[in-house]
Specification:
By secondary structure, the chain is mainly α. The chain is about 80% helix and about 0% strand.
Length: about 130
């Protein structure tokens, strides 16, 4: 399954983002919240934003693949999603608004494509079947 590759990459990203938050919490001795440290605030938002977008996108990616979408489509959507999240990390980490905007555009495009592909490939005869 191709979507498993993007699930693995996404979890690796989440782990990296989470470790950044933990490292900064230890460095600044903050157990809850951000302690007013902008670097920790940024790390928390990088992690939080990924947690907000990745699960739903990965579920849609898996369903799209299970419903028979072309392999290249799964790769395209998966790459767009992961690259979007990497761009978001880079943009937030370096305070670059262009990268953040581009990242959100890539993420939203991936989500829209995933929704449309799932609607296209959905087995409608089973959805509306009473069996």
């Amino acid at each position: 399954m191709v979507s498993a590759l993007y699930a693995v990459l996404s979890v690796l990203l989440l782990m990296k983002f989470s470790m950044d938050v933990v490292r900064l919490r230890m460095q600044y001795r903050v157990s809850l919240g951000d302690g007013g440290f902008s670097e920790l605030q940024t790390a928390i938002r990088i992690h939080g934003n990924a947690v907000e977008y990745l699960p739903a996108a990965l579920i849609l990616l898996l369903f799209m693949e299970m419903n028979g979408a072309e392999t290249w489509m799964v790769h395209f959507c998966g790459l767009l999603l992961v690259v979007g999240r990497l761009m978001h990390y880079y943009g937030l980490h370096h305070h670059l608004l262009f990268w953040r905007r581009s990242a959100m555009s890539a993420t939203w495009c991936a989500l829209i494509l995933l929704v449309l592909a799932n609607l296209w490939y959905m087995p409608w005869e089973l959805v509306f079947s009473l069996h």
